[in-house]
Amino acid sequence: MSAGGAPVVPPPNPAVSFPAPRVTLPAGPDILRTYSGAFVCLEILFGGLVWILVASSNVPLPLLQGWVMFVSVMAFTFSLLFLGVFLSGMVTQIDANWNFLDFAYHFTVFVFYFGAFLLEAAATSLHDLHCNTTVAVQPLLSSNQYNINVAATIFAFLTTACYGCSLGLALRRWRP
Q1: What are the backbone dihedrals phi and psi of residue 22, each rounded to the nearest 5 degrees, phi first?
Q2: CA dist., res. 66 & res. 49, Å (int)
Q3: What is each CA distance from 63 to 48, 138, 165, 172, in whole angstroms?
Q4: What is the 3-state secondary structure (H, E, C) of the chain?
Q5: Residue 22 has what pLDDT?
Q6: Which of 170, 149, 153, 166 is nearest to 46 (CA)?
Q7: Do 65 and 123 touch, CB atoms closer than 8 A?
Q8: What are the residues facing 131 on neighbouring strands?
Q9: Do 68 and 156 form a contact (C-beta atoms < 8 A)?
Q10: What is the C-alpha to C-alpha distance for residues 143 and 134, in angstroms, rounded to an integer?
Q11: pLDDT at 3 over 60
Q12: Of the candidates 165, 25, 38, which has an alpha carbon nearest to the alpha carbon of residue 109?
């Protein structure tokens, strides 16, 4: 009883006041046995290849390919983090709607990667554009840079497709 005669209400139990995390994907190594886990692994693999290929072309068009590098590095990093959170089982410890977070993450990265794919394809298509240099007129991309950018464009498309498939699976889990 308090000084005024009213009973003292105990503070709420924090374990009771927070709902359990909402996630339908398995935690731990079992995530690798799902389609979503396989697509995240492919996103990491193909995204890493895009990053390596664009960097190895010496980024001849930094205005276009700078965005491609940014998107590929950030998506690679966040996909590794996303997979790590599921593999470590932390999804069961963190109170969040993981189905919605999965959908929001894959939607955002799909939109960014689609734009990066278009920019990489545009940069590759400019290979016949001739630039005026002090000595002679040369093509914008050398033959080697062109071949590397073609491969980067193909892998950017495959990565975008993987993020699109992950987005579709995440949408099905979020809105059954």
Answers
A1: -105, 110
A2: 16
A3: 20, 20, 29, 37
A4: CCCCCCCCCCCCCHHHHCCCCECCCCCHHHHHHCHHHHHHHHHHHHHHHHHHHHHHCCCCCHHHHHHHHHHHHHHHHHHHHHHHHHHHCHHHCCCCEHHHHHHHHHHHHHHHHHHHHHHHHHHHHHHHCEEECCCCEEECCCHHHHHHHHHHHHHHHHHHHHHHHHHHHHHHHHCC
A5: 74
A6: 153
A7: yes
A8: 138
A9: yes
A10: 20
A11: yes
A12: 165
pTM: 0.81
Give the pLDDT confidence of 82-113 residue by residue, as tens digits: 999 999 989 888 888 889 999 999 999 999 99
Which residue's entry shows tokens 């276009």? 64
Quote the radius of gyration of the chain (alpha carbons, Å): 23
